[in-house]
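Person: Show me a sequence?

Helper:
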Amino acid sequence: MLEQILESVRARLGDVVRDEEEWRAAAADALPVRDFVGALTTPGLSVIAEVKRRSPSAGPIDVDLDPAELACSYAVGGAAAVSVLTEADHFGALPGDLPAVRSAIGIPVLRKDFILEEAQVWQSRAMGADAVLLIVAILDDATLARLLATAAAAGLASLVEVHTAGEAGRATDAGAGIIGVNNRDLSTFGVDLGTAERIRPLLGSGVVAVAESGVSSVEGAGRMAAAGYNAVLVGAAAVRSGDPAGFVASLRGAA
């Protein structure tokens, strides 16, 4: 499934790369970047709540959601930041989702996608993102370093996602300041919160640590807080909760 997703992303990359200079120009005129790191390092457990229409693992979640309305509910509940899926073929994202969220809230916005090229980083800045997701599993060391440098040049924070101890080592060697440990196995899509618990000691104390995927309850959030995570990133559970503001508030109270 991961390879299928990457094939879809690569098929669209030509247009993005071709327009890189336009993205750079638009990025220069974009609104000031919001402080993603500062948002995640306030006292207690921070929550990054996600705008997510569907996923390969969960299927349809809420394909007709209103991204701005949902993001506002997250903010009311105390979310530190909002993550927006922007991949269309497998996650059902619409082109206006991230700009709509950025315009509706005053907290940082993370673009969550499969970023392979520098042009996508500049595109993210032009779209209104304050941070980008970089997935170690799909990047070699040289590309990871290049994308981290490009994000810094664009003024964006980078959430560097890992799934294994080996990937955690690569992320720290690359100088990643924010590392997200994904509890979902990308090959089986199974979820194990023990993954984040095992990897957290490998990240060191100077890293902003984010636990991703699998947190759907106060108990799960409490486990991640106890393991030493600054924040949790929640997706499908938040969208399906029926009370996004209350759900986010309950996770924040888990610490």
Q: What stands out?
A: The chain has one domain: 2-252. Residues 2-18 form the longest helix (17 residues). Residues 2-252 form a domain with the TIM Barrel fold (CATH 3.20.20.70). The mean pLDDT is 96.
